[in-house]
Write a structure and sequence with these properties.
With 135 residues, this protein is mostly beta strands. The protein contains one helix and eight strands; from the N terminus they run αββββββββ. The protein has a single domain, classed as Sandwich (Jelly Rolls), CATH 2.60.120.
């Protein structure tokens, strides 16, 4: 009986330790693409939820340069013309690169983001749209 109690106590402590030090869940990758010699541009696109936070990440050798052409489309909850739009941006960047994708407004019915990334220095890059861990 003492041995059984000791084993159960040991298993309980082990389970508690595992739960206490569980690793954080990694961020959810919604879209990912990478460049190569055969495909020198990387494209990503995703449907987003205005209530959630997202980031655009570009990884590669440190200091690799690139350009981004992005398009964002959204429609407000009432599907009104004044609350809906398409926006495009172009900008240069250097790896490692991370930028928050900011919701254009609250209470959206539809929000889509797409980006085309082109390395300018010859290095390959990986592009992601990520929903960070909410723990």
């Amino acid at each position: 009986m003492i041995r059984t109690t000791g084993i159960l106590l040991g298993l309980t402590l082990l389970a508690a330790a595992i739960v206490a030090v569980r690793p954080a869940i990694a961020a959810a990758v919604l879209a990912e693409s990478q460049t190569s010699v055969a495909h020198p541009v990387a494209t990503v696109r995703a449907a987003l939820d205005w209530r959630q936070r997202y980031t655009l990440q570009v990884d590669g050798p440190p200091g690799a340069t690139f350009t981004v052409a992005a398009v964002e489309s959204y429609v407000d909850a009432g599907a009104t013309l004044s609350g809906s739009a398409d926006r495009s941006t172009q900008f240069p960047g250097t790896t490692p690169y991370t930028a928050e994708l900011v919701t254009p407004q609250a209470n959206l019915r539809y929000w889509r983001y797409a980006a085309v990334v082109t390395p300018t220095g010859g290095e390959n890059v990986v592009v992601r749209i990520v929903a960070p861990d909410v723990n």
